[in-house]
Specification:
- The chain is α/β, with parallel strands linked by helices and about 400 residues long.
- It folds into 2 domains: about 25-40 and about 280-385, Lyase, Ornithine Decarboxylase, Chain A, domain 1, CATH 2.40.37.10; about 60-270, Alpha-Beta Barrel (TIM Barrel).
- It is about 25% helix and about 20% strand.
- Strands 1, 10, 11, 12, 13, 14, 15 and 16 form an 8-stranded mixed sheet that branches. An 8-stranded parallel beta barrel has the order 2-3-4-5-6-7-8-9, surrounded by 4 helices.
- Helix 2 (about 45-55) packs across helix 3.
């Protein structure tokens, strides 16, 4: 008889067993001398950043779990005041409910497995579901037994924008379709809303204003009562070659556009991910070989540095030893046998970097842990909590300073 079993592809991040580790990155590396990637979480920074975002946004903030589902990060977000979570799968729903029995969970993926809808609703108390088609609305109603307490959020498609990662092509109902969905959902929804997503790492505050205006137009044309306007995520963070407008500019654009939309009785939601956790983790790599301006390191695009590959993100880096050499640009080669496992950077490091050195790569709290794969067997990594500030210091933008 054939045996059926589930298989997990990636080994979980492991906390080192060594007792009483130092509280700084340098101290931990000196103590452990790791030969596998080491993820360094900054929970105090994440909590402070979450608290600052919640205070700035004029509505309900839900964390986009897909950005970093590491339990240590989730606990830090909870400590910072986050009580609402945007989940995109049954596994994410399970994780959040197991950690926070009182959390409000919102299933914000526009296309869901029927079993995921049933489990989320019946076992985990999820009541809010996003849809972007009549078929998905029918699916949600069928799998929840036409429950009388559903929140239905209609995902609105947006024109292609200027975000670093455009999200306009995969999900969302065109305005005319969204109008019909709102009308169809109103009789069966205890709470009705409209959502959109301007794209990941959006650098233009005006993108939110235009999207709010379009959503308001759709709501007025539908002619039904709506309780929620969800502005999605996309709030940006700084990288070595990117300094976004301050968070206050995005909040002002949202406030002004929402006021101009004149939607009485409607509350705002947001789904930040990157903006809350990007500065909250770094990864320590070890150099395994140097060939001119190429450093062969023990992590890469199949691990924590996926965004440094084809997307071409540059991350802040530092050498974990003293050096008087001038900084020069390097590219990284990952540990796998795939020639595509290359990160062009450039990453500025002292010219005397060599095999055996450790390099810390910052701003990896967003997507650095969750995009890891098991390709070539390079799926092991460690994890520690540290008190270091983020590698990229941009207090004028958004990230609050945290006392050690």
């Amino acid at each position: 008889m054939t045996e059926f079993r589930f298989r997990g592809a990636v080994a979980p991040l492991r906390r080192p067993a060594a007792p009483a580790l130092p509280r700084t990155v340098d101290g931990v590396v000196a103590a452990l001398r790791p030969e596998e990637p080491l993820h360094c979480l900054r929970p105090a920074q994440v909590a402070a950043t979450a608290s600052a975002f919640l205070a700035a946004f004029p509505g309900t903030t839900m964390y986009a779990v897909k950005c970093n589902p590491e339990p240590g990060m989730l606990r830090a977000l909870w400590a910072g005041g986050v009580r609402h979570f945007d989940c995109a799968s049954a596994a994410e729903v399970r994780l959040v409910r197991s950690m926070f029995p009182d959390a409000a969970i919102h299933f914000m993926h526009p296309v869901k497995a029927r079993s995921a809808i049933r489990e989320a609703h019946a076992q985990h108390g999820v009541r809010d579901f996003v849809v972007d088609s009549a078929a998905e609305l029918a699916k949600v109603l069928a799998e929840t037994g036409n429950a009388a307490d559903l929140g239905i959020i209609v995902r609105l498609a947006l024109p292609k924008g200027e975000a670093v990662m455009d999200l306009s092509g995969k999900f969302g109902a065109e305005p005319a379709v969204a109008v019909e969905l709102l009308r169809a959902a109103r009789p069966v929804a205890a709470r009705l809303g409209v959502s959109f997503h301007v794209g990941s790492q959006c650098l233009e505050p005006g993108a939110y204003a235009r999207a709010i205006a379009l959503a308001a137009q759709v709501i007025r044309e539908a002619g039904v009562k709506v309780e929620v306007l969800d502005v999605g995520g996309g709030f940006p963070v700084a990288y070595p070659d990117i300094l976004p407008p301050p968070l206050s500019a995005f909040m002002a654009a949202i406030r002004d556009a929402f006021q101009a939309a004149a939607l009485p009785g409607v509350q705002l939601w947001a789904e930040p991910g990157r903006a809350l956790v990007a500065g909250g983790a770094s990864v320590v790599l070890q150099v395994q070989a140097r060939r001119g301006g190429e450093l062969f390191v023990n992590d890469g695009v199949y691990g924590a540095l996926s965004d440094a590959g084809v997307p071409g993100f540059r991350f802040p880096v530092r050498l974990l030893r003293a050096s008087g050499a001038a900084s020069v640009p390097f590219a990284f080669q990952g540990p796998t046998c795939d020639s595509a496992d290359r990160m062009a950077g450039p990453f500025l490091l002292p010219a005397d970097v060599q095999e055996g050195d450790w390099i810390e790569v910052g701003q990896l709290g967003a997507y650095g842990g969750c995009l890891r794969t098991a390709f070539n067997g390079f799926d092991r990594a460690g994890m520690v909590d540290v008190i270091d500030p983020p590698l990229l210091d941009t207090p004028g933008y958004f990230m609050p300073a945290v006392a050690a």
